[in-house]
Design a protein that fits this description.
2 domains, single chain, globular, HARBI1_dom, metal-binding
Amino acid sequence: LIWYLARPYESQMSDWGIWYESKIQKEINKCAKGIEGEQLFVFGDGTYGLQSGVMGAYRPLHNSSLTTEQKIFNQNMSQSQIATEWAFGKVIRLWGFMGHKMGHQIGLSPVGIYFPTCVLLTNCHTCYYSS
């Protein structure tokens, strides 16, 4: 499920710029706690650097290789990252008018209403169909 949305951003804005401006880091630190209060993490690529609540793939140190466990972790997390990308793709598949080709422009069309509504309906679809 998609649980956090910020305001609309122009398509040419970088992932890091959106990350910084959306203040999602605060939400992660506030909400990413396990049942017993332990810190949970969001898996991100190198774009986001080292930050609280964000972790990336294991990388081999100089003249060494990853352990089998580290390789398995990287593979599993990579698959989860793909699933996250698919969640946003599902919004576009279900609500085709939200695609880039439709030419929505911030300030000229109510993207700030359209997209959150489509995400809510997509989350409902996901829960109902267990998909």
